[in-house]
Specification:
Elements (H helix, E strand, L loop, with lengths): L6 H14 L18 H13 L5 E3 L8 H9 L4 E4 L5 H7 L4 E3 L3 H15 L5 E6 L3 H14 L3 E7 L5 E2 L2
Parallel strand pairs: 1-2, 2-3, 4-5
Antiparallel strand pairs: 5-6
Helix pairs in contact: 2-3, 5-6
Length: about 170
């Protein structure tokens, strides 16, 4: 998982534990980083799980590109990986010749739908600001594409991590 400190992942962990409890054949191991920005730590956790020869890995990647290589190595060693929530970079997976099951939202489609709603509600001279979370760049491109195609002015994009601020 990403951060085991985040409420979302605490609930996810608890649900997994409850599901696994009555299953004597399932030895569930939940691991995660301290924060949702520790990419290298999550990569290290993946390699540790591969080294431990776990039977399967369910992964919520912090970084959709950085986690591809350990996923590729896991799959090549016969460890099935199920990617949830944030899709791993499909081009990198294809280049490696690896298929990974994905369960989660289509962030591009979601952003496009938001853009269509905005298009109905806003006038051409209205300014739009985007405040996003950790999936910032996964959603932003489609939303910006729709905003620009409607000749709107994107006045700013700001991640809730407060790391990125751009005026367009």
């Amino acid at each position: 998982m990403k951060s085991l400190q985040a409420d979302f992942f605490k609930v996810m962990k608890e649900g997994a534990i409850q599901y696994a409890a009555p299953l004597p054949f399932l030895d569930l191991v939940c691991v995660g980083t301290a924060t949702q920005t520790e990419v290298e730590e999550q990569v290290d956790l993946m390699y540790s799980l591969i080294h431990q020869q776990v039977d399967a890995i369910v992964l919520v990647p912090i970084d959709s590109k950085a986690l591809v290589q350990p996923v590729v190595e896991a799959v090549r060693k016969g460890v099935p990986v199920i990617n949830i929530d944030i899709r791993l970079d499909t081009q990198l997976l294809e280049q490696a010749g690896v298929e990974v099951a994905f369960v989660g939202p289509d962030n591009f489609a979601a952003a496009y739908e938001v853009g269509k709603l905005l298009d109905k509600k806003l006038r051409n001279e209205d300014k739009v600001a985007i405040i996003e979370g950790l999936n910032f760049f996964l959603r932003e491109n489609w939303l910006q594409q729709l905003i620009f195609s409607a000749h709107r002015w994107l006045s700013g994009a700001l991640s809730s991590l407060w790391m990125y601020w751009r005026e367009k």
